Amino acid sequence: MFLIALSYTKNQTDAQDILQNTFLKLWQNTKEFKNDGHLDKWLTRVAVNESKNLLRSPFKSRSVPLEEADIKYDFAENQDHDLFNAVMELPQKQRTVIHLFYYEDMSVKEIAEALGIRENAVKTRLSRGRTQLKNILGDDWNDE
Q1: What span, in angstroms and rounded, lies between the C-alpha atoms of 87 and 96?
Q2: What is the pTM of this model?
C-alpha cells in the first residue's frame, strides 16, 4: 500500500499520510470482511482513493514544498536581505532559534518552552548560530 501511495504522490511524507489514513479507515470500518483477500483488496482500493483525493485536494494543488518555494521578501536594506539568506543557510536547529529570537522577538525562556528543550540548549544553539553567521557574512556581520 505504501508503494501504491508513493507511486501517486512521489513524496514519502504524503505516502505515509495516505497509509495512516488508510489504516484509520480500516479501524473505523464496521463491515466484516469475507477473507484476507477481500481485506487486501479493500485496503488497496482505499489507498488508491486516498492518493487520488490528496492529489485532487485544493490544498495540494496550491502548495509547493518549502525547498522548491521561491520565497521573496522585501527588505529595506540589502544588508537585511543578505542576513536573512545567511540565516536560511544555517542548520535547522540553529535557524529555528535564531529566527524565533531575532525575527519573532521571543525570549530564551519562551523559545525553550515552545521547542520543548532546556534554556541552555537554546543559548548553545544561539551561540553556534551567531558564530556560523559571522563566518558566512564575514566583514558584514553586525551582532546587534
Answers
A1: 9
A2: 0.47
